[in-house]
Write a structure and sequence with these properties.
CATH topology: endopeptidase fold (from Nostoc punctiforme)
Number of strands: 8
Order of helices and strands: HHHHHHEEHHEEEEEE
Strand order of the largest sheet: 3-8-4-5-6-7
Number of helices: 8
Helix content: 40-55%
CATH class: Alpha Beta
Strand content: 5-15%
Largest sheet: 6 strands, antiparallel
Number of domains: 1
Oligomer: single chain
Distance between the termini: 85 Å
CATH superfamily: endopeptidase domain like (from Nostoc punctiforme)
CATH architecture: Alpha-Beta Complex
């Protein structure tokens, strides 16, 4: 009996120790390695592509799934247009509320500060804000190489070109040329809505950490996600908007 009691006590102590060790381990699910100093959480690269909490936007048949974030973006874009067309302060307030609703979902999904992301979106130019919201309205659109038509599909440069065209900026349908045609900015100075690019891929920066909107690849389509950690040394930021 005494031996059995000792075994049970050791087993209980072992389980308690395991729980305590687990409680002290850093929680890394859903995070990504991001730029330090901008509301970032840094975790090992090995978890980036397996634990990022982003909804699957495409069905097995390659069709877009319904996403409430897209609905909020449509509402926010309409509110943006209304605030631009009217001097009524209520329209501006309506836009800010709609913008906050979009930010809330994006920040929750990407594990960044809502306050920091909202400030980043508010402080960028109106052209940048519109480009972000236009891009968000294409969430779930399938990937189609060489296309900037969301009714058919979008590739990476097609998404960037489509979003910025709605803000009055014409960009080529080549990722490298989009960067070359825009003004290079430092990562620290990059604003929400700027272009992020590395060889063969361009994205729309969302203003905090490494969060971007992009048309990833054929089986994913347009989605919110992190900059590819492996390409981090080659990442460039650029502002396509004209100098005012």
């Amino acid at each position: 009996m005494e031996r059995k009691f000792v075994r049970r006590r050791r087993l209980r102590h072992g389980l308690v120790a395991a729980v305590l060790v687990g409680a002290t381990m850093p929680v890394t699910f859903g995070a990504s390695p991001v730029h330090a100093g901008r509301g970032a959480v840094i975790v090992p690269p090995s978890v980036v592509h397996t634990t990022w909490r982003s909804p699957q936007m495409m069905t097995k048949e390659g069709l877009p799934r319904h996403d409430v974030l897209k609905d909020r973006a449509v509402v926010a874009l309409a509110a943006y247009e209304g605030s631009i067309a009217s001097s009524d302060p209520k329209m501006a307030d309506r836009y800010q509320s709609a913008l906050a609703a979009v930010v809330s979902i994006v920040a929750t999904r990407t594990f960044v500060s809502r306050a920091e992301m909202f400030e980043a979106w508010q402080s960028t130019s109106s052209r940048h804000q519109k480009a972000i919201l236009v891009g968000m309205t294409t969430l779930g659109t399938g990937y189609l190489f060489g296309s900037d038509n969301p009714k058919k599909g979008l590739d990476c440069s097609g998404l960037v070109a489509y979003a910025w065209a709605k803000s009055g900026v014409t960009l080529p349908l080549k990722s490298d040329r989009q960067i070359d045609q825009s003004r290079t900015v430092s990562r620290e100075a990059a604003r929400a809505g700027d272009i992020v690019g590395y060889p063969g891929h361009t994205m729309i920066y969302l203003g905090v950490g490494d969060i971007v909107l992009h048309s990833a690849r054929p089986n994913l389509g347009v989605r919110v996600g992190p900059i590819n950690w492996r390409e981090s040394p080659n990442v460039k930021f650029a502002d396509p908007s004209p100098l005012d």
